[in-house]
Structure of Transcription elongation factor GreA:
Amino acid sequence: MDFFTLKEINDINKKINNLKYLELPKIINELSKAKLLGDLSENSEYIYAKKKKNLIEKEIKILEEKISKAKIKNTKNENLKKIILKDLKSDKLLEYQVDLKNKSNEINYNILNIIKNKKIGDLVKLKRYNKEILFKIILK
């Protein structure tokens, strides 16, 4: 179960709609055109379009599953601690919310423990996707 803000849920829904109603029809059209080129077993345009279609469908399924299991973050709850980190390499912001009374989310608690003696502007290294990434603390 993932927790998202309303904005994050809306962004995911926009991405799903873009994939479903723009990207997928475009690739289906490419598939139709590629079929007209002849032998499908040696037709690289068809093979490429088919793989691309499968990837788009898989991404749609993953995003829809994520939304179906999502819970909305309660930003009004004083037990929640909001932490924002900036990835210095990609300039992307990561937002974490830790429920100070519920210690079931291990990842967020590990982040809280890493930054507990740091202040805003300090740099921290976190392990994400099996590599260490340097972050700057934006909000604590």
